[in-house]
Amino acid sequence: MWDNHTMNSSLLSGLNPEQRAAVELPAQSALILAGAGSGKTRVLTTRIAYLISTGQVSPHGILAVTFTNKAAKEMVTRLSALLPINTRGMWIGTFHGLCNRMLRAHFREANLPQTFQILDSGDQLSAIKRLMKVMNVDDEKYPPREVANFISGSKEQGLRASDVEAYDPYTRRKVEIFAEYDAQCQREGVVDFSELLLRCYELLQRNQQLREHYQARFKHILVDEFQDTNPLQYRWLKLLAGRDNALFAVGDDDQSIYAFRGANVGNMQELLRDFHVESVIKLEQNYRSHGNILDAANALIQNNRNRLGKNLWTDAHKGEPLRVYEAPNDVEEARFIVDEIQQLRREDVRLSEIALLYRSNAQSRVLEHALVSAGLSYRVYGGLRFFERQEIKHALAYLRLMENTDDDNALLRIINFPTRGIGARSIEQLQESARQFNTTLFNAAARAGGKVAAFVGIIEALRNETRDLPLPEIIDHVLQHSGLVAHYEAEKTTPAKRREAEERLDNLNELLNAATLFVHEAEDDSLTAFLTHASLEAGEHQAGDSEDALHLMTVHAAKGLEFHTVFITGLEQGLFPHENSVNEDGGLDEERRLMYVALTRARRRLYLSFAQSRMLHGQVNYSVMSNFLREIPEELLHWLTPRFEARRTFSSGSQETASYVAAFGAAHSEPAPPSPQAAWRIGQRVFHQKFGEGVVTDAEGSGNDGRVQVNFKRAGSKWLALEYAKLTAL
DNA sequence: TGGTTCTTAGTTTTT
DNA sequence: CTAAGAACCA
């Protein structure tokens, strides 16, 4: 036992009054509105430490939920630093991780096999495709992607197939697929991500004894990033909280950027009502950014309706203004960024302290190209993750099938990989026979003869040979004897292929390392546990983390991170905000929150850049500056190029114009002659040199400064800046 | 069965 | 443009 008094004073020292109030709240439900950089994680972990050290609850009675494994890990790390306790047995994890834990503990009650496997999004998609083939569903009319979203979306609303109300034949068919898909998963002993949550929710709902057990246990439930919870997650929390437990939710409605995937910010309002929350505490003091950056973020986000309301402030200096750069095109934008980074390096800013953010992944290309040319090292985040690589998925499929022969998904992935002469024809026969005998593919394969039976022999041999071996040895054995290693060794034919094959072999080796590490760190070092780990933690990044490199990522991926310098690139209408979002309701607001997240990533320096034209889908696209940039007060900005609007007032031939053209000539080497046409009318037929014939469908601005939307016969609908696009009336 | 060419689509995606 | 997937041929 330690001295409560000293422990508390050291715990609470350094907290501001609001943070402290949040930490010291009595045991009742609360909502903490925590702005960007306001010390949210610190409050969450200190709250846990406080509850434990004041004896209000034992570590055993805490349930702490996050969305990412990274956040969960960080919480554990920080907690261990605050308190001399063993965090191992504590229930701190992601929604999915915790649900998995409960389902494993009560697999019988949940009607699952002990070794049930978890399908990631890719596995789920292939399971759906396979099923749709069996059901004879037209995948043109029902794109598997959409069906997958429909199923996951329904589950995230807490709905089973039988609960979905379908009023049209189209939806009815999707519901049928949904029902069949669930039946298939059940047969095969697998669960997808949303099933993990729904199954756990149903388990607690139906099983009074279990529910009461956990309700009695978790007196304090703490949730991070509460604005990102979906309806099912919220119901799960409500169920566990029951009538008496305290739900401590931390979130920021202004940083809700996952509504497109089912997150429901409305949960924050519901929480206030359902839990009779008396204490809403706002954490508005920001410890991250300089004043100008926060002022810009505040000004921007004020344009959103339906906010809970919050304004960030800081004790820090105003700092520099935000630097704005208008480039003639995407390549020049990248070149500018490279120049600035080289300058920053001379000022001793480390590369790893600089982030290049963009709205969509495709934008990284141009940037990467410029960085490679300049010899600057960088790292693109959010690419293919370790456990999602083809060769890793293959290796895992062997392991999964050994563990659970009902897993048809796994079987289909490897029955002919490496190739062993089992083609589409044989597989079809196998599926037919499995259906006939109402059994799994593996069982059907065992009855078959020839190559198919040989495959069954391979799996059974692997199983027998690895029985009772430690995990890394199991994996090593499987890699060697499945033929995977030999397959990739044999791929080393041409130099180009050799590099690829070597990389894949390296990754397989890395899988072995991952398993070794896992055995050392995990409480449960069984194969099942490792496979679960592989599904739930697709694995951050491979080696090379130590190198000083720039960070390239989407704005979504940047949430929760911070950098000395941030470049927000591609600030153009149609790109950011993205045109697809503008049509969805609430879409523009979500885009604005995304911009808010982007702005608040920067500690000291922020660059905002946009390009007049950019290569998109292989065609040059012209666009105008993002409205989000217009929403930032002028006095916070420092334009590195002449301001967009200012140029319009130039009279031709003036000195200013001449110097401007000299400096930024690339895009203006062929200044568009003033169009004789004063304004384009909607419905006007026009001709464009590159896109051909089209019809004006919309117009903005006036005269030569505006832009028009033209629906081209060949090239589709486009927005064109009249200043640059040469349109002829037809 | 495996390599080729053709077609088509192209936001964001913690698990 | 370019990457993935399907259709297509050897």
Care to count the β-strands? Answer: 21
Overall 3D shape: globular
By helix and strand content, what is the structural category? alpha/beta
Please compute the radius of gyration using only Cα atoms: 29 Å
End-to-end Cα distance: 87 Å
**Helix content range of the residues, please?**
40-55%
Contiguous low-pLDDT stretches (5 residues minimum) are: 646-678
Strand content: 15-25%
Largest sheet: 8 strands, mixed
Structure annotation, total helices? 30
Average pLDDT value? 86
Provide a descriptive summary of the structure in words:
The chain has 730 residues and is α/β, with parallel strands linked by helices. Helices cover 46% and strands 15% of the residues. It has 30 helices and 21 strands. Strands 9, 10, 11, 12, 13, 14, 15 and 16 form an eight-stranded mixed sheet that branches. Strands 3-2-6-7-1-8 form a six-stranded parallel sheet, with helices on both faces. Helix 9 runs parallel beside helix 11, helix 13 runs antiparallel to helix 27 and helix 14 packs across helix 15. The longest helix is centred in the C-terminal third of the chain and has 27 residues. It is globular and about 75 Å long. The N and C termini lie far apart (87 Å). About 5% of the residues have low confidence. The chain binds a DNA duplex (15 and 10 nucleotides) through helix 4, helix 5, helix 9, helix 25 and helix 26.
